[in-house]
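ingest -> validate -> predict -> emit
validate: passed (alphabet ok, no gaps, 111 aa)
predict: started
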Amino acid sequence: MAIQPQIQIANFITLKAKAGKAQALADFLSSGAAAVDATEPQTHAWYAVQISADTFAIIDFFKDQAGQDAHVAGAVAAQLKAQADTLIEGGWDEGVLKQFQVFKVLSATHA
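emit:
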């Protein structure tokens, strides 16, 4: 009998820093986990990673749609939106929302 994974939704978003803003974006993202932990109990896991010198990604996981909705409406998303025009190529609409991908989690394990 197959068991549905506890985590059902994953978000993945790539962010390209504006010229000269890679360190500022890295610093902003480095503080993200603490903010998510403090304000978003329905976010199961949140990761910020650096892909290259000026490209970053956020990967996060949720039990259900309610958790993902709370995250998208949460404090970290609001802070990212406020900083997007300064830090991210394309700003909020082209640099963040257009890069936002949502996936169905099929299987998961935890160490």
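The two ends are 23 Å apart (CA to CA).
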